[in-house]
Protein backbone atom coordinates (compact mmCIF):
# COMPACT_ATOMS: atom_id res chain seq x y z
CA UNK A 1 0.00 0.00 0.00
CA UNK A 2 1.21 3.52 -0.72
CA UNK A 3 2.61 5.57 2.13
CA UNK A 4 -0.06 7.36 4.12
CA UNK A 5 -0.74 10.98 3.15
CA UNK A 6 -2.84 13.65 4.73
CA UNK A 7 -6.53 13.02 3.94
CA UNK A 8 -8.62 15.45 1.95
CA UNK A 9 -9.18 18.35 4.32
CA UNK A 10 -12.90 18.87 3.71
CA UNK A 11 -13.74 15.17 4.22
CA UNK A 12 -11.59 14.89 7.34
CA UNK A 13 -13.09 18.05 8.81
CA UNK A 14 -16.63 16.92 8.04
CA UNK A 15 -15.99 13.56 9.68
CA UNK A 16 -14.44 15.12 12.79
CA UNK A 17 -17.31 17.59 13.13
CA UNK A 18 -19.94 14.86 12.75
CA UNK A 19 -18.26 12.66 15.35
CA UNK A 20 -17.93 15.58 17.75
CA UNK A 21 -21.64 16.31 17.36
CA UNK A 22 -22.50 12.66 17.96
CA UNK A 23 -20.58 12.49 21.23
CA UNK A 24 -19.04 15.12 23.50
CA UNK A 25 -16.00 12.90 24.07
CA UNK A 26 -14.49 10.31 21.70
CA UNK A 27 -15.45 6.72 22.56
CA UNK A 28 -12.79 4.37 23.85
CA UNK A 29 -13.64 1.76 21.21
CA UNK A 30 -15.31 2.31 17.84
CA UNK A 31 -16.26 -0.04 15.02
CA UNK A 32 -16.46 0.63 11.30
CA UNK A 33 -18.29 -1.36 8.62
CA UNK A 34 -16.15 -1.75 5.50
CA UNK A 35 -17.49 -3.46 2.40
CA UNK A 36 -14.50 -2.80 0.18
CA UNK A 37 -16.31 -0.16 -1.86
CA UNK A 38 -14.99 3.37 -2.25
CA UNK A 39 -17.22 5.00 0.38
CA UNK A 40 -16.47 2.59 3.21
CA UNK A 41 -12.73 2.32 2.40
CA UNK A 42 -12.43 6.10 2.49
CA UNK A 43 -14.29 6.08 5.81
CA UNK A 44 -11.85 3.49 7.11
CA UNK A 45 -8.82 5.63 6.23
CA UNK A 46 -10.35 8.82 7.60
CA UNK A 47 -11.37 7.08 10.82
CA UNK A 48 -7.92 5.54 11.16
CA UNK A 49 -6.37 9.03 11.14
CA UNK A 50 -9.03 10.43 13.47
CA UNK A 51 -8.80 7.50 15.91
CA UNK A 52 -5.02 7.76 16.10
CA UNK A 53 -5.28 11.47 16.90
CA UNK A 54 -7.95 10.93 19.55
CA UNK A 55 -6.75 7.77 21.29
CA UNK A 56 -9.65 5.64 20.01
CA UNK A 57 -9.27 1.88 19.45
CA UNK A 58 -10.74 1.23 15.99
CA UNK A 59 -11.97 -2.17 14.76
CA UNK A 60 -13.36 -3.06 11.33
CA UNK A 61 -15.79 -5.68 10.04
CA UNK A 62 -16.91 -6.77 6.59
CA UNK A 63 -20.21 -8.53 5.92
CA UNK A 64 -20.03 -11.22 3.25
CA UNK A 65 -23.62 -11.83 2.17
CA UNK A 66 -22.63 -14.87 0.14
CA UNK A 67 -24.48 -13.51 -2.89
CA UNK A 68 -21.55 -12.84 -5.22
CA UNK A 69 -18.48 -14.91 -5.99
CA UNK A 70 -16.27 -11.84 -5.61
CA UNK A 71 -17.50 -11.05 -2.10
CA UNK A 72 -14.97 -13.32 -0.36
CA UNK A 73 -12.10 -11.77 -2.30
CA UNK A 74 -13.34 -8.28 -1.42
CA UNK A 75 -13.48 -9.20 2.27
CA UNK A 76 -9.92 -10.54 2.01
CA UNK A 77 -8.85 -7.27 0.38
CA UNK A 78 -10.32 -5.29 3.28
CA UNK A 79 -8.54 -7.59 5.73
CA UNK A 80 -5.23 -6.81 3.98
CA UNK A 81 -5.90 -3.07 4.12
CA UNK A 82 -6.73 -3.30 7.83
CA UNK A 83 -3.59 -5.31 8.49
CA UNK A 84 -1.57 -2.60 6.76
CA UNK A 85 -3.18 0.00 9.02
CA UNK A 86 -2.66 -2.14 12.11
CA UNK A 87 -6.40 -2.57 12.72
CA UNK A 88 -8.28 -5.72 13.79
CA UNK A 89 -10.73 -6.97 11.17
CA UNK A 90 -13.53 -9.55 11.17
CA UNK A 91 -15.50 -11.13 8.33
CA UNK A 92 -19.18 -11.68 9.16
CA UNK A 93 -20.93 -14.17 6.90
CA UNK A 94 -24.64 -14.31 6.07
CA UNK A 95 -26.08 -17.40 4.50
CA UNK A 96 -29.74 -16.75 5.23
CA UNK A 97 -31.12 -15.86 1.78
CA UNK A 98 -33.73 -18.38 0.65
CA UNK A 99 -34.50 -16.79 -2.70
CA UNK A 100 -37.83 -15.26 -1.66
CA UNK A 101 -38.95 -11.76 -0.83
CA UNK A 102 -37.06 -8.46 -1.06
CA UNK A 103 -33.36 -9.30 -1.35
CA UNK A 104 -31.94 -5.80 -0.68
CA UNK A 105 -34.10 -5.42 2.42
CA UNK A 106 -33.26 -8.91 3.72
CA UNK A 107 -29.55 -8.29 3.14
CA UNK A 108 -29.73 -4.91 4.88
CA UNK A 109 -31.45 -6.40 7.93
CA UNK A 110 -28.93 -9.22 8.09
CA UNK A 111 -26.05 -6.76 7.75
CA UNK A 112 -27.21 -4.65 10.68
CA UNK A 113 -27.91 -7.70 12.81
CA UNK A 114 -24.48 -9.22 12.16
CA UNK A 115 -22.69 -5.92 12.71
CA UNK A 116 -24.64 -5.25 15.90
CA UNK A 117 -23.84 -8.68 17.31
CA UNK A 118 -20.17 -8.25 16.39
CA UNK A 119 -19.97 -4.79 17.95
CA UNK A 120 -21.59 -5.83 21.20
CA UNK A 121 -19.30 -8.84 21.42
CA UNK A 122 -16.28 -6.56 20.98
CA UNK A 123 -17.51 -4.02 23.51
CA UNK A 124 -17.68 -1.25 20.91
CA UNK A 125 -19.52 1.97 21.71
CA UNK A 126 -20.80 2.48 18.15
CA UNK A 127 -20.39 1.40 14.53
CA UNK A 128 -19.63 3.92 11.78
CA UNK A 129 -21.19 3.51 8.32
CA UNK A 130 -20.07 4.99 5.01
CA UNK A 131 -23.26 6.69 3.80
CA UNK A 132 -22.64 9.88 1.86
CA UNK A 133 -24.48 12.99 0.71
CA UNK A 134 -25.23 11.15 -2.53
CA UNK A 135 -26.85 8.30 -0.61
CA UNK A 136 -28.98 10.87 1.19
CA UNK A 137 -30.22 12.36 -2.09
CA UNK A 138 -30.84 8.97 -3.71
CA UNK A 139 -32.81 7.80 -0.69
CA UNK A 140 -35.03 10.89 -0.88
CA UNK A 141 -35.81 10.17 -4.55
CA UNK A 142 -36.63 6.52 -3.87
CA UNK A 143 -38.97 7.48 -1.05
CA UNK A 144 -40.65 10.12 -3.19
CA UNK A 145 -41.41 7.35 -5.66
CA UNK A 146 -43.08 5.36 -2.87
CA UNK A 147 -45.25 8.29 -1.84
CA UNK A 148 -43.57 8.65 1.55
CA UNK A 149 -44.62 11.33 4.01
CA UNK A 150 -42.51 13.57 6.23
CA UNK A 151 -40.75 10.73 8.04
CA UNK A 152 -39.81 8.87 4.88
CA UNK A 153 -38.52 12.01 3.19
CA UNK A 154 -36.42 13.02 6.18
CA UNK A 155 -32.69 12.75 6.09
CA UNK A 156 -30.85 9.69 7.30
CA UNK A 157 -29.70 10.48 10.82
CA UNK A 158 -26.01 11.07 11.51
CA UNK A 159 -26.52 9.24 14.80
CA UNK A 160 -29.15 6.57 15.41
CA UNK A 161 -29.80 4.01 18.10
CA UNK A 162 -31.35 0.77 16.88
CA UNK A 163 -31.06 -2.90 17.76
CA UNK A 164 -29.16 -2.10 20.94
CA UNK A 165 -26.34 -0.34 19.07
CA UNK A 166 -25.39 3.22 18.15
CA UNK A 167 -24.93 3.73 14.39
CA UNK A 168 -22.94 6.70 13.12
CA UNK A 169 -22.90 8.16 9.62
CA UNK A 170 -20.15 10.79 9.77
CA UNK A 171 -19.87 11.30 5.98
CA UNK A 172 -23.41 12.43 5.21
CA UNK A 173 -22.08 15.86 4.28
CA UNK A 174 -19.44 14.52 1.88
CA UNK A 175 -19.86 13.75 -1.83
CA UNK A 176 -19.04 10.30 -3.17
CA UNK A 177 -16.62 11.77 -5.68
CA UNK A 178 -14.65 13.51 -2.93
CA UNK A 179 -14.07 10.18 -1.22
CA UNK A 180 -12.82 8.57 -4.40
CA UNK A 181 -10.45 11.49 -4.93
CA UNK A 182 -9.15 10.89 -1.43
CA UNK A 183 -8.46 7.23 -2.19
CA UNK A 184 -6.74 8.05 -5.47
CA UNK A 185 -4.52 10.56 -3.69
CA UNK A 186 -3.48 7.83 -1.29
CA UNK A 187 -2.98 5.27 -4.00
CA UNK A 188 -5.74 3.06 -2.62
CA UNK A 189 -7.95 0.98 -4.90
CA UNK A 190 -11.47 -0.14 -4.14
CA UNK A 191 -13.98 -2.75 -5.29
CA UNK A 192 -17.01 -1.97 -7.44
CA UNK A 193 -20.14 -3.98 -6.77
CA UNK A 194 -21.76 -4.83 -10.15
CA UNK A 195 -25.18 -4.20 -8.63
CA UNK A 196 -24.26 -0.51 -8.48
CA UNK A 197 -24.82 -0.42 -12.25
CA UNK A 198 -27.80 -2.78 -12.39
CA UNK A 199 -30.95 -0.83 -13.36
CA UNK A 200 -33.09 -3.50 -11.72
CA UNK A 201 -32.26 -1.87 -8.37
CA UNK A 202 -34.13 1.24 -7.26
CA UNK A 203 -30.98 2.97 -6.02
CA UNK A 204 -29.39 2.72 -9.45
CA UNK A 205 -32.55 4.15 -11.00
CA UNK A 206 -32.43 7.02 -8.50
CA UNK A 207 -28.77 7.65 -9.30
CA UNK A 208 -29.54 7.87 -13.00
CA UNK A 209 -32.57 10.05 -12.35
CA UNK A 210 -30.36 12.48 -10.45
CA UNK A 211 -28.09 12.79 -13.45
CA UNK A 212 -31.10 13.46 -15.68
CA UNK A 213 -32.48 16.10 -13.29
CA UNK A 214 -29.23 18.03 -13.00
CA UNK A 215 -30.05 20.40 -15.91
CA UNK A 216 -33.10 21.53 -13.93
CA UNK A 217 -30.92 22.41 -10.98
CA UNK A 218 -32.10 19.40 -8.99
CA UNK A 219 -28.88 17.93 -7.68
CA UNK A 220 -27.65 15.80 -4.79
CA UNK A 221 -26.75 18.77 -2.60
CA UNK A 222 -30.19 20.36 -3.02
CA UNK A 223 -32.06 17.12 -2.34
CA UNK A 224 -29.93 16.40 0.73
CA UNK A 225 -30.73 19.90 2.01
CA UNK A 226 -34.44 19.22 1.44
CA UNK A 227 -34.12 15.97 3.37
CA UNK A 228 -32.54 17.93 6.20
CA UNK A 229 -35.44 20.37 6.28
CA UNK A 230 -37.88 17.46 6.33
CA UNK A 231 -35.96 16.07 9.29
CA UNK A 232 -36.53 19.36 11.09
CA UNK A 233 -40.26 19.09 10.39
CA UNK A 234 -40.27 15.47 11.56
CA UNK A 235 -38.66 16.51 14.84
CA UNK A 236 -41.40 19.09 15.44
CA UNK A 237 -44.11 16.50 14.74
CA UNK A 238 -42.39 13.99 17.00
CA UNK A 239 -42.38 16.51 19.85
CA UNK A 240 -46.10 17.06 19.37
CA UNK A 241 -46.71 13.31 19.60
CA UNK A 242 -44.45 13.12 22.64
CA UNK A 243 -46.41 15.86 24.39
CA UNK A 244 -49.68 14.06 23.66
CA UNK A 245 -48.26 10.74 24.87
CA UNK A 246 -47.16 12.29 28.15
CA UNK A 247 -50.79 13.24 28.80
CA UNK A 248 -52.66 10.24 27.47
CA UNK A 249 -50.48 7.10 27.42
CA UNK A 250 -49.92 4.52 30.13
CA UNK A 251 -48.24 1.10 29.92
CA UNK A 252 -50.01 -1.84 31.58
CA UNK A 253 -48.64 -5.39 31.44
CA UNK A 254 -46.75 -4.55 28.26
CA UNK A 255 -49.83 -3.05 26.57
CA UNK A 256 -50.16 0.58 25.51
CA UNK A 257 -53.33 2.14 26.91
CA UNK A 258 -54.39 5.48 25.39
CA UNK A 259 -56.83 7.92 26.97
CA UNK A 260 -59.39 8.16 24.19
CA UNK A 261 -60.92 11.64 24.76
CA UNK A 262 -57.47 13.29 24.85
CA UNK A 263 -56.34 11.28 21.85
CA UNK A 264 -59.38 12.13 19.74
CA UNK A 265 -58.93 15.83 20.45
CA UNK A 266 -55.46 15.84 18.85
CA UNK A 267 -54.74 16.56 15.15
CA UNK A 268 -54.90 13.56 12.83
CA UNK A 269 -51.16 13.61 12.08
CA UNK A 270 -50.36 13.44 15.80
CA UNK A 271 -52.86 10.62 16.37
CA UNK A 272 -51.47 8.60 13.47
CA UNK A 273 -47.89 9.13 14.63
CA UNK A 274 -48.69 8.09 18.18
CA UNK A 275 -50.68 5.03 17.08
CA UNK A 276 -47.91 3.91 14.72
CA UNK A 277 -45.42 4.25 17.56
CA UNK A 278 -47.67 2.26 19.90
CA UNK A 279 -47.97 -0.55 17.36
CA UNK A 280 -44.21 -0.63 16.91
CA UNK A 281 -43.65 -0.62 20.67
CA UNK A 282 -45.95 -3.58 21.29
CA UNK A 283 -45.16 -5.51 18.12
CA UNK A 284 -41.40 -4.77 18.04
CA UNK A 285 -41.79 -3.79 14.39
CA UNK A 286 -38.89 -2.09 12.62
CA UNK A 287 -41.11 -0.19 10.19
CA UNK A 288 -44.33 1.68 10.77
CA UNK A 289 -47.44 0.40 8.95
CA UNK A 290 -48.38 1.83 5.58
CA UNK A 291 -50.37 5.01 5.92
CA UNK A 292 -53.55 3.67 4.29
CA UNK A 293 -53.57 0.60 6.56
CA UNK A 294 -52.91 2.73 9.62
CA UNK A 295 -55.68 5.19 8.76
CA UNK A 296 -58.16 2.37 8.15
CA UNK A 297 -57.32 0.57 11.39
CA UNK A 298 -57.46 3.72 13.49
CA UNK A 299 -60.73 4.82 11.89
CA UNK A 300 -62.28 1.45 12.66
CA UNK A 301 -61.05 1.53 16.25
CA UNK A 302 -62.38 5.02 16.84
CA UNK A 303 -65.65 3.75 15.38
CA UNK A 304 -65.76 1.10 18.11
CA UNK A 305 -64.49 -1.90 16.10
CA UNK A 306 -61.54 -4.10 17.03
CA UNK A 307 -58.76 -4.14 14.47
CA UNK A 308 -55.48 -5.99 14.00
CA UNK A 309 -52.43 -4.42 12.40
CA UNK A 310 -48.68 -5.04 12.49
CA UNK A 311 -49.06 -8.07 14.76
CA UNK A 312 -51.09 -6.10 17.29
CA UNK A 313 -54.72 -5.86 18.36
CA UNK A 314 -56.36 -2.44 18.86
CA UNK A 315 -59.21 -2.79 21.39
CA UNK A 316 -61.55 0.20 21.67
CA UNK A 317 -63.42 1.05 24.86
CA UNK A 318 -65.53 4.06 25.72
CA UNK A 319 -62.64 5.88 27.41
CA UNK A 320 -59.59 4.15 26.03
CA UNK A 321 -57.82 2.40 23.19
CA UNK A 322 -55.71 -0.58 24.22
CA UNK A 323 -52.94 -1.88 21.96
CA UNK A 324 -51.94 -5.42 22.83
CA UNK A 325 -50.02 -8.18 21.07
CA UNK A 326 -52.07 -10.25 18.67
CA UNK A 327 -52.05 -13.88 19.80
CA UNK A 328 -51.60 -15.22 16.26
CA UNK A 329 -48.36 -13.26 15.94
CA UNK A 330 -46.75 -15.16 18.85
CA UNK A 331 -48.65 -18.46 18.82
CA UNK A 332 -45.64 -20.45 17.57
CA UNK A 333 -42.91 -18.49 19.37
CA UNK A 334 -40.99 -20.68 21.82
CA UNK A 335 -37.73 -19.92 23.66
CA UNK A 336 -35.75 -20.89 26.73
CA UNK A 337 -36.94 -19.12 29.89
CA UNK A 338 -33.71 -17.11 30.12
CA UNK A 339 -34.14 -15.58 26.64
CA UNK A 340 -35.91 -12.32 25.86
CA UNK A 341 -39.32 -13.44 24.56
CA UNK A 342 -40.97 -11.65 21.64
CA UNK A 343 -38.31 -8.96 21.91
CA UNK A 344 -39.93 -7.56 25.05
CA UNK A 345 -40.56 -9.99 27.94
CA UNK A 346 -38.14 -11.23 30.60
CA UNK A 347 -38.67 -13.93 33.21
CA UNK A 348 -36.97 -14.72 36.50
CA UNK A 349 -37.69 -17.36 39.12
CA UNK A 350 -36.83 -20.88 40.30
CA UNK A 351 -34.91 -23.52 38.38
CA UNK A 352 -36.22 -23.64 34.82
CA UNK A 353 -34.47 -26.76 33.51
CA UNK A 354 -36.65 -28.57 30.99
CA UNK A 355 -39.07 -25.65 30.69
CA UNK A 356 -39.90 -23.47 27.71
CA UNK A 357 -41.46 -20.06 27.35
CA UNK A 358 -44.36 -19.71 24.92
CA UNK A 359 -47.69 -17.92 24.70
CA UNK A 360 -50.34 -18.88 27.24
CA UNK A 361 -52.93 -19.11 24.47
CA UNK A 362 -56.66 -19.85 24.81
CA UNK A 363 -55.97 -23.45 25.86
CA UNK A 364 -53.66 -22.40 28.66
CA UNK A 365 -56.03 -19.72 29.86
CA UNK A 366 -58.84 -22.31 30.01
CA UNK A 367 -56.80 -24.13 32.68
CA UNK A 368 -56.84 -21.05 34.90
CA UNK A 369 -60.38 -20.49 36.16
CA UNK A 370 -59.27 -17.56 38.31
CA UNK A 371 -57.55 -15.59 35.54
CA UNK A 372 -60.00 -12.70 35.83
CA UNK A 373 -58.57 -11.94 39.27
CA UNK A 374 -55.46 -10.63 37.50
CA UNK A 375 -57.54 -7.70 36.24
CA UNK A 376 -56.22 -7.94 32.70
CA UNK A 377 -58.11 -8.46 29.43
CA UNK A 378 -58.26 -11.94 27.99
CA UNK A 379 -56.53 -10.77 24.82
CA UNK A 380 -53.55 -9.52 26.80
CA UNK A 381 -53.19 -12.74 28.77
CA UNK A 382 -53.39 -15.23 25.91
CA UNK A 383 -50.64 -13.34 24.03
CA UNK A 384 -48.37 -13.18 27.10
CA UNK A 385 -45.64 -15.76 27.76
CA UNK A 386 -46.16 -18.67 30.13
CA UNK A 387 -43.91 -21.48 31.33
CA UNK A 388 -44.51 -24.93 29.89
CA UNK A 389 -43.07 -28.38 30.32
CA UNK A 390 -44.17 -29.99 27.09
CA UNK A 391 -48.00 -29.86 27.13
CA UNK A 392 -48.04 -29.12 30.87
CA UNK A 393 -48.64 -25.55 32.00
CA UNK A 394 -46.20 -24.79 34.80
CA UNK A 395 -46.74 -21.09 35.46
CA UNK A 396 -48.58 -18.10 34.03
CA UNK A 397 -46.98 -15.19 35.92
CA UNK A 398 -48.94 -12.41 34.23
CA UNK A 399 -52.17 -14.07 35.32
CA UNK A 400 -50.78 -14.28 38.88
CA UNK A 401 -51.30 -18.04 38.78
CA UNK A 402 -48.71 -20.75 39.43
CA UNK A 403 -50.12 -24.02 38.21
CA UNK A 404 -47.88 -26.65 39.81
CA UNK A 405 -45.19 -25.16 42.05
CA UNK A 406 -44.78 -22.51 44.76
CA UNK A 407 -44.94 -18.89 43.73
CA UNK A 408 -41.68 -17.31 42.65
CA UNK A 409 -41.88 -16.61 38.95
CA UNK A 410 -41.75 -12.99 37.90
CA UNK A 411 -42.51 -11.70 34.40
CA UNK A 412 -41.95 -8.13 33.29
CA UNK A 413 -41.70 -6.18 30.03
CA UNK A 414 -38.22 -5.16 28.95
CA UNK A 415 -39.39 -1.61 28.26
CA UNK A 416 -41.76 0.68 30.12
CA UNK A 417 -43.44 4.03 29.77
CA UNK A 418 -40.24 6.07 29.83
CA UNK A 419 -38.83 3.96 27.01
CA UNK A 420 -42.04 4.51 25.05
CA UNK A 421 -41.80 8.27 25.50
CA UNK A 422 -38.11 8.64 24.76
CA UNK A 423 -38.34 6.49 21.63
CA UNK A 424 -40.84 8.95 20.17
CA UNK A 425 -38.05 11.51 19.96
CA UNK A 426 -35.34 9.22 18.60
CA UNK A 427 -34.87 8.48 14.92
From TrEMBL:
Comment field on protein domains: The N-terminal region contains the highly conserved SGGXDS motif, predicted to be a P-loop motif involved in ATP binding.
Residue positions binding ATP: 35-40
The enzyme's E.C. designation: 6.3.4.19
Family that this chain belongs to: Belongs to the tRNA(Ile)-lysidine synthase family.
Subcellular location: Cytoplasm
Main location: cytoplasm
Cross-referenced InterPro entries: Rossmann-like_a/b/a_fold, TilS/TtcA_N, tRNA_Ile_lys_synt, tRNA_Ile_lys_synt_N
Annotated protein name in UniProt: tRNA(Ile)-lysidine synthase
Function: Ligates lysine onto the cytidine present at position 34 of the AUA codon-specific tRNA(Ile) that contains the anticodon CAU, in an ATP-dependent manner. Cytidine is converted to lysidine, thus changing the amino acid specificity of the tRNA from methionine to isoleucine.
Record-level GO BP terms: tRNA modification
Keywords attached to this entry: ATP-binding, Cytoplasm, Ligase, Nucleotide-binding, tRNA processing
Catalytic reactions of this protein: cytidine(34) in tRNA(Ile2) + L-lysine + ATP = lysidine(34) in tRNA(Ile2) + AMP + diphosphate + H(+)
Molecular function per GO: ATP binding; tRNA(Ile)-lysidine synthase activity
Family annotation (SUPFAM superfamilies): Adenine nucleotide alpha hydrolases-like
Keyword Transmembrane: no
UniProt domain tRNA(Ile)-lysidine/2-thiocytidine synthase N-terminal: residue ranges: 31-208
One Pfam family of this chain: ATP_bind_3
Amino acid sequence: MAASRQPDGSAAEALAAALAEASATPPARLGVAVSGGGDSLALLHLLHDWAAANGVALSAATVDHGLRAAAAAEAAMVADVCAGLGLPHAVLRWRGWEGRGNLPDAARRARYRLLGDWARGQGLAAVALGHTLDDQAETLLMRLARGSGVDGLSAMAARREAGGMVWLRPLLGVRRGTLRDLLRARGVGWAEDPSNDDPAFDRVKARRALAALAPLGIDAAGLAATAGRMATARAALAHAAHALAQDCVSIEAGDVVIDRPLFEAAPEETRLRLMAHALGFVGSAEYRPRLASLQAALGAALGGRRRTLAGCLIRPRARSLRITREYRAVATLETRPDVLWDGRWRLSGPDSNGLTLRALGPEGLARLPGWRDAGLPRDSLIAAPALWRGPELVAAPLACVDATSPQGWRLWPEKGRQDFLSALLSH
